[in-house]
Amino acid sequence: MKTDLAPAALSPLDLRAFWTLADDLQRQTVDHASALFAFVETASPPRLFSLLAQYRCFTDYYIADIALLIARLPPGRMRSFLADILFDELGSGDAAQAHPQLYDDFLASLGIEHGDHERQALTANLALLDAARAALTAPGATAAYGVGLRGMGGECVCQVYLAKLYEHLIRNPYVREHRERIDWTFWELHVGEHDIAHREKLRALIGEEIGGMDAGSIAALERGYRDSMAAWQAFWGHIHAAATAADPAAAARGAPAGEAAIAQFHLAIGVHDLQTARAFYCDVLGAGQGRSTKNLIDLDFYGHHLVIHQAPQEAVGDAAFGSAFYGETVKVPHFGINLNWRDWSALAERIKRHGYEFVDPPHVRMRDLPGEHATMFLNDPSGNALEFKAFRNHDEVFATIFASHTREMEGLDGLVEKAAAA
């Protein structure tokens, strides 16, 4: 790596332009990571492990790459700072605290059964990591390029992906169920203040160190950063593809022994007058009332899930219409089944395996509210709409929402309005 840096002056405008570009690329990465990891919230345990295990290979490569970068950097604060990061990655003298070991401890604490092959790194990702190392150590590679590729790539870009992965990971039903037993040490270091401080210090040092480099160093720094961005996008793309690939055995495995099966019929229908219909179903037929908004009411219909929606005035006969619910529009009428999480995930896999398209793909609705659930919509060949749900807590299918300060029932509309105004 070239370290004979010329003392030619560097314009502050060039550096500001680079940070503007870097910030824009980072925002794009945040959006990409958020979309990429959305499926984690509803992923089955085997798919979850498939995704998480594949990150492990980077932890080994990163340590060696940082050591190579340090060895080829000129003396200075950047070199010393990266040496501190390397010391930290290696456990600060305690092998049990080395970050690859902490990640192994995390994977083991998940308690998800898996085969040895699921721990083997993807060939495509090993090729990416080898290519990055080759670029880092190439005879013509400059210090600025190396800092962009592995300094910013490891401490900035990687942290964005890990932070978004963690955000979705902690919402996964399996993880929430076993949260207390899971070893979170690795994540506490990589998505908390510890890693944020590293990233901010690296950014400050880049500003200082670049000032002593030649005028071409900004271009080299940018090139390294862009190469890192592209590599990370491909790295996680390969992992996502493997973790979401069709698994014919998923549906056959079914729910493990000890997990209660759920098969609750769900029907959503339109009515001409919501309150008249409520009186009929509750007072005349004896249904229990659950959540409600200005245009729908959830009903406990002798253990089954009936939702009545206010039909628009222009609706004719039994024509389908769209009904607003918590920021979404659902087609009414529709029917389906409320399942447990594992059976719901298996059904989603079955639908994907058959190549059948979703009208509304699997996602989580009413997040962090009573009644939070996963949902997916599709049409049968005749155009009939079907919805399949899995509630975070099945006891909350008909749960109402209470305002803590008044203990009075509060509709979802009011809750959403308050959230939007906050």
Task: Provide an overview of this structure.
The chain is α+β, with helices and mostly antiparallel strands. It folds into 2 domains: 12-245, Heme Oxygenase, Chain A, CATH 1.20.910.10; 256-421, 2,3-Dihydroxybiphenyl 1,2-Dioxygenase, domain 1 (Roll), CATH 3.10.180.10. Helices cover 51% and strands 15% of the residues. The protein is built from 15 helices and 10 strands. The protein has helices spanning 12-36, 45-54, 56-72, 77-89, 99-110, 123-137, 143-169, 173-177, 185-190, 193-210, 217-243, 248-253, 274-284, 341-353, 412-421, and strands at residues 263-271, 288-293, 296-301, 304-310, 321-325, 328-332, 334-339, 360-365, 373-379, 385-391. The strands form 2 sheets. An 8-stranded mixed β-sheet has the order 2-3-4-1-7-10-9-8. It is elongated, with a radius of gyration of 26 Å. 32% of the residues are buried.
Topology:
Layout: H1 12-36, H2 45-54, H3 56-72, H4 77-89, H5 99-110, H6 123-137, H7 143-169, H8 173-177, H9 185-190, H10 193-210, H11 217-243, H12 248-253, E1 263-271, H13 274-284, E2 288-293, E3 296-301, E4 304-310, E5 321-325, E6 328-332, E7 334-339, H14 341-353, E8 360-365, E9 373-379, E10 385-391, H15 412-421
Parallel strand pairs: 1-4, 7-10
Antiparallel strand pairs: 1-7, 2-3, 3-4, 5-6, 8-9, 9-10
Helix pairs in contact: 1-7, 1-11, 2-11, 3-4, 3-6, 3-7, 4-10, 6-7, 6-11, 7-10, 7-11
